[in-house]
Amino acid sequence: MLFGKEHVKRYQETDGAEGHDWQGTTVLLLTTKGRRTGREHITPLIYQMNGDDYVVVASKGGAPDHPHWYLNLQANPEVQVQVKGDKFAARARTATAEEKPALWQKMVATWPDYDEYQRKTDREIPVVVLERV
Predict the structure, then answer these.
(1) Where does residue 24 rank: exposed (0-12), middle (13-18), buried (19+ CB within 10 A)?
(2) Domains of the chain
(3) Which segments does the entry list as coiled coil (predicted)?
(4) What's the chain's Rg over C-alpha atoms?
(5) What is the mean pLDDT of residues 82-102?
(6) Does 2 have pLDDT greater than 70?
């Protein structure tokens, strides 16, 4: 099972031939700039398309705090995305209250554990929209 640094490495080496399709769903690589260090951080995330936009979930497995990548993009929403061999700049934003229910259902359809993660935590798990720029 790939995930973490090894997942990123294999995905980058193979333009997603290894790592894009993962456990019955699809994964992209999100590069954020550290809000304190300014260093780049690459995170593999499950995604789905919504029109031309890419949708990811800041679940952290239902942990009580947001994942670092989400805090980073809140500080700097200009990110880089890799989907298979396609690498592009994007602007990240948290889905609005109006958008979130439909996007949440789309993401739960591809990764049912998101509902369990939400039950495990008091924080509202954000859904993030990545808009190609």
Answers:
(1) exposed
(2) 4-132 (2.30.110.10)
(3) none
(4) 14
(5) 98
(6) no
Write out pLDDT tens, residues 40-51: 999 999 999 999
Q: Is 64's pLDDT higher than 50?
A: yes
Q: Cα–Cα distance between 58 and 49 in angstroms, integer?
A: 16
Give which of 128, 33, 123, 34 is closest to 80, Cα–Cα.
33
Tokens of 104: 């949440």
For the entire predicted model, the pTM comes to: 0.96
Beta-ladder partners of 93: 129
Residue with tokens 């789905």: 48
**Mean pLDDT over residues 100-129, rounded?**
97
The single residue listed with the structure tokens 């790592």 is 19
Tell me the two tokens of residue 71: 């805090």
Q: What's the distance, CA 32 to chain centroid?
A: 11
